[in-house]
Design a protein that fits this description.
With about 350 residues, this protein is an all-beta fold. The chain has one helix spanning about 15-20; strands spanning about 1-5, 10, 25-35, 35-40, 45-55, 65, 80, 95, 110-115, 125-130, 145-150, 160-165, 175-185, 195-200, 210, 220-225, 230, 235-240, 245-250, 260-265, 265-270, 275-285, 290-300, 310-315, 325-330, 335, 340-349. The strands form 6 sheets. The chain has an 8-stranded antiparallel sheet with strand order 14-27-16-22-23-24-19-20, with no helix packed on it. Strand 9 and strand 10 (about 125-130) form a beta hairpin. The longest helix has 9 residues, at about 15-20. The chain is globular and about 55 Å long.
């Protein structure tokens, strides 16, 4: 391998593949598909990502999490907010709840994405976002959203097991699933959980930023950046749908949620007519509503003296017969997405 002028690198395909092989990435540590999900024997990784998809069974359910089988009260202090409301700060529970109260709505689902710092000699700090259709199915009912932080106060062990369960009983459907991913700076594996499905950058200004056709995967991770040329308002839709099949709710800059947006043809991701970066996770099971957890950062006014604006969103596509195989970001205002706007999609089953 040679280093040429301008810091360019010259080498063979085999040498390039060898370099890629030592990069590491998010590796699957374990999964369970069951009415009560517990994953044991987790490898010691510095950072964890947890994906949870839970489907209502019968009766009244309330979803929670425990680490290393620890059922001691006061081990899981947390802070959370539902739908942009005031924070609650429970400190004496024996698990971390992801639903603020039980529900018997038929077909109810939760989709949770969690990140945990997992240093053995420090308290374990976690961040989570949950979308769930508590009030029922269909585009006339918005998903609810829960956001929170927590800690497990143990300072002597890394996390070696994670249990998701219905702590109000045994009402979770047996198709519910939890996947735990790990990442560590020393990782050199090549079996990354997340597979790149699309990477598209606009070479000329236009009104549509599309992934094109992608392979159907149960879990999707999407990032896109839209750069304005004139007035832009980005909206997201799937599979070239034209009906009113979407519902969403949002909070801008930490305010209480705005009025839920029901029976829409897409969901809006930006707070301002401005450049915007969006990060989104989607549960993409063919037989269930598609739940999305979305965060955006927007440049309201340029310059170091002006903070960006933020929007937190949960959205759903009400289709229950097929998976997402295309993601489109459309500009519904008078300008264009400028050259350099891009979308990237990763997925996994």
């Amino acid at each position: 391998m040679e280093f040429l002028a301008g810091n360019r690198i010259s080498g063979t395909t085999a040498e390039k593949d060898t370099l890629q092989a030592v990069t590491g990435g998010w590796k699957e540590l374990g999964r369970v598909t069951a009415s009560v999900g517990e994953i044991t024997g987790l490898a010691d990784k510095r950072y964890l990502m947890v994906l949870g998809h839970h489907i209502q069974g019968s009766g009244n359910s309330g979803l929670g999490l425990q680490l290393n089988g620890d059922t001691t009260a006061s081990q899981y202090p947390r802070r959370y907010s539902e739908n942009g409301g005031s924070d609650a700060t429970p400190t004496s529970e024996t698990n971390i709840f992801f639903d603020t109260n039980g529900s018997t709505v038929s077909g109810k689902e939760w989709f949770t994405v969690m990140h945990i710092e997992n240093k053995s000699d420090k308290e374990k700090l976690g961040i989570y976002h949950t979308a769930y259709n508590r009030n029922g199915l269909g585009s006339g009912q918005s998903s609810h959203r829960l956001e929170g932080v927590f800690k497990w106060v143990n300072t002597s062990n890394p996390i070696s097991s994670i249990k998701f369960s219905d702590f109000n009983g045994t009402a979770m459907n047996s198709a519910s699933q939890v996947i735990v991913l790990g990442w560590d700076p020393a990782d050199t594996h090549t079996d990354n959980f997340w597979e790149e499905l699309a990477s598209v950058e606009l070479s000329s200004a236009g009104d549509v930023l599309s992934s094109g056709t992608i392979t159907a995967k149960k879990y999707l991770w999407v990032q896109f950046y839209v750069k304005k040329s004139g007035s832009i308002v980005p909206e997201v839709s799937f599979n070239n749908t034209t009906g009113n099949e979407y519902a969403y709710r949002f909070s801008d800059n930490g305010a209480p949620d705005g009025t839920p947006q029901l029976n829409k043809s897409a969901f809006r991701t930006s707070t301002d007519d401005t450049n915007s970066f969006v990060n989104m996770f989607i549960i993409n099971n063919s037989s269930n509503e598609k739940l999305a957890i979305v965060n955006s950062s927007d440049v309201a006014t340029t310059g170091a003296g002006n903070a960006p604006t933020r929007r937190e969103i949960v959205a759903k596509w009400t289709n229950t017969s097929s998976q997402i195989t295309e993601i489109d970001v459309d500009n519904v205002s008078s300008g264009n997405f400028d050259t350099g706007s891009f979308i990237k999609v990763w997925g996994s089953n």
